[in-house]
Amino acid sequence: MRVRLNGSDTELDDDTTLDAIVRRYGQGDRGIAVALNGEVVGRSRWNDVKLTEGDRVEVLGAIGGGEQEMEQWTTLSY
Question: Which domain holds residue 24?
Protein backbone atom coordinates (compact mmCIF):
# COMPACT_ATOMS: atom_id res chain seq x y z
CA MET A 1 0.00 0.00 0.00
CA ARG A 2 1.09 3.60 -0.54
CA VAL A 3 1.01 6.20 2.27
CA ARG A 4 2.47 9.65 2.72
CA LEU A 5 5.13 9.46 5.47
CA ASN A 6 6.54 12.80 6.62
CA GLY A 7 5.74 14.32 3.25
CA SER A 8 7.11 11.50 1.06
CA ASP A 9 5.17 8.79 -0.72
CA THR A 10 6.15 5.46 0.82
CA GLU A 11 5.28 1.86 -0.03
CA LEU A 12 4.39 -0.28 3.00
CA ASP A 13 3.08 -3.78 3.56
CA ASP A 14 -0.65 -4.12 4.12
CA ASP A 15 -1.64 -4.12 7.81
CA THR A 16 1.37 -1.98 8.82
CA THR A 17 0.75 -0.36 12.21
CA LEU A 18 1.91 2.99 13.52
CA ASP A 19 4.10 1.11 16.01
CA ALA A 20 5.79 -0.73 13.14
CA ILE A 21 6.54 2.60 11.44
CA VAL A 22 8.26 3.97 14.54
CA ARG A 23 10.23 0.72 15.07
CA ARG A 24 11.05 0.28 11.37
CA TYR A 25 12.88 3.54 11.09
CA GLY A 26 14.91 3.02 14.27
CA GLN A 27 14.02 6.21 16.10
CA GLY A 28 12.84 4.48 19.30
CA ASP A 29 9.67 5.76 20.89
CA ARG A 30 10.94 8.23 23.50
CA GLY A 31 10.13 11.83 22.66
CA ILE A 32 8.08 10.80 19.63
CA ALA A 33 4.59 11.88 18.60
CA VAL A 34 2.64 10.42 15.68
CA ALA A 35 -0.15 12.09 13.72
CA LEU A 36 -2.39 10.15 11.35
CA ASN A 37 -4.32 12.20 8.81
CA GLY A 38 -3.81 15.33 10.91
CA GLU A 39 -4.81 13.83 14.28
CA VAL A 40 -2.33 12.92 17.02
CA VAL A 41 -2.57 9.24 17.98
CA GLY A 42 -1.72 8.31 21.59
CA ARG A 43 1.23 5.95 22.06
CA SER A 44 -1.03 3.35 23.70
CA ARG A 45 -2.89 2.96 20.37
CA TRP A 46 0.12 2.74 18.00
CA ASN A 47 0.07 -1.06 17.89
CA ASP A 48 -3.68 -1.18 17.24
CA VAL A 49 -3.89 1.41 14.45
CA LYS A 50 -3.35 -0.16 11.01
CA LEU A 51 -2.59 2.11 8.10
CA THR A 52 -4.66 2.12 4.92
CA GLU A 53 -3.97 3.24 1.36
CA GLY A 54 -3.54 7.01 1.12
CA ASP A 55 -3.07 7.69 4.84
CA ARG A 56 -0.89 10.65 5.81
CA VAL A 57 1.52 9.92 8.69
CA GLU A 58 3.75 12.44 10.44
CA VAL A 59 6.31 11.16 12.95
CA LEU A 60 7.66 13.99 15.08
CA GLY A 61 10.56 14.04 17.51
CA ALA A 62 10.94 16.41 20.47
CA ILE A 63 13.99 18.63 20.60
CA GLY A 64 15.07 20.67 23.61
CA GLY A 65 16.60 24.10 23.67
CA GLY A 66 15.74 27.68 23.05
CA GLU A 67 15.57 30.69 25.31
CA GLN A 68 13.24 29.17 27.87
CA GLU A 69 14.22 25.52 27.32
CA MET A 70 10.82 24.90 25.79
CA GLU A 71 10.27 21.58 24.10
CA GLN A 72 9.74 21.83 20.35
CA TRP A 73 8.80 19.23 17.74
CA THR A 74 10.48 18.50 14.44
CA THR A 75 9.59 16.11 11.63
CA LEU A 76 11.94 13.13 11.60
CA SER A 77 13.73 12.33 8.37
CA TYR A 78 13.70 8.79 7.02
Answer: 2-75
CB 63 within 8 A of CB 70: no
Closest CA to 4 of 72, 47, 54, 78: 54
Residues in the chain: 78
Q: Which CATH number characterizes residue 43's domain?
A: 3.10.20.30
30 touches 59 (CB < 8 A) = no
How far is the C-alpha of 4 from the C-alpha of 57, rounded, in Å? 6
Summarised one tens digit per residue, pLDDT across range 4-46 is 999 999 999 999 999 999 988 756 767 889 999 999 999 999 9
Domain count, the chain: 1
